[in-house]
Amino acid sequence: MENLDVMVLRTLRDWRQAGKRALLATVVRTWGSSPRPVGSIMALCEDGAVVGSVSGGCIEDDLIYQYTQAYATAGAGAESKTIPSGPPTFVKYGITADEAHRFGLPCGGTLELLLEYDPEASALAELVQALEAGQLMQRSVRLTDGAVTLAPATAPADLSVTALVLVNTFGPEYRMLLIGAGQLTEYLATMALFSGFAVTVCDPREEYRSAWSVPGAKVLSDMPDDLVIAFKPDRRSCVIALTHDPKLDDLALMEALSTDAFYIGAIGSRRNNETRHQRMAEHFGLNEATLARLRGPIGIYIGSKTPPEIAVSVMAEVLAVKNGVVLPRDMEVARAKNERAVVENDAEGLVCGVARVPS
Predict the structure, then answer these.
(1) 88 & 226 share domain
(2) Which residue ranges does the record assign to the XdhC- CoxI domain (predicted)?
(3) 288 pLDDT above the threshold of 60
């Protein structure tokens, strides 16, 4: 699955270029609990087709009903409704307890949307083209008439709205580069794809590439360190080594550590991780501060032992780092296993130290 915002904007562009009426809805404010964060977008076509989400589904249903009815009955005599057009408008949902229940919002939840009618196709095409080229873009909407201004952005930013303008920042897809095309990689790539990442898998070993079975991921045969350089990891990228082979993993990880990738990690045990750090310090001259960015053992501690469970563990950690969530230390794999080993050793020592009572 591709980045949701890009998919919404691309679909809306296609509708408008085909001459169809459509609107763009953006979550601009929330109060209490909300099923979708501020900045979330959805597009609605005159025929009722919808892409994206601003709630759990009930608000989408209401928008579809309201606006497809308006499109369908326009000009149909006394029962006709005015086709929505003109400058953007704000609409609130969930203001009362009854509305919150009707629209499926959590108790006390309220959200406000900005509705843009028939956004200009050329501006949408320009925005989508920039996003597909990997640019971070700022989209400003003048609220008096809906005029759109686009500009490159230097950093991600939260949506802002004033009495005059709404500004939303859209970024390119999050990317994941996986070193090694084994079974664990297939599970992790699948999870990353449906989480909205663009996935690239690198493995120069033909026997592994030939067995690859996950559609949607790009599989390349380059040497991993060369591919990391060509991949140019940025703040929306992660690099994960999964081969257990230092000849493939180490140079790729070294290159990744010189980039802005938000997550860099490698599979392996606690001992393998310590050995990797020593090897990279001795042979490649990496200092302690640089190696501190290298995660391992990767994942969160959920007692996982099978490839799919390990993939869940790793994907959970990647998403936590991406979303800026600091995980409790007792969820770190190495710490949890160390503490578990201490407990098990203490228990074993207690059993071994019990004196046998003579019969």
Answers:
(1) no
(2) 15-75
(3) yes
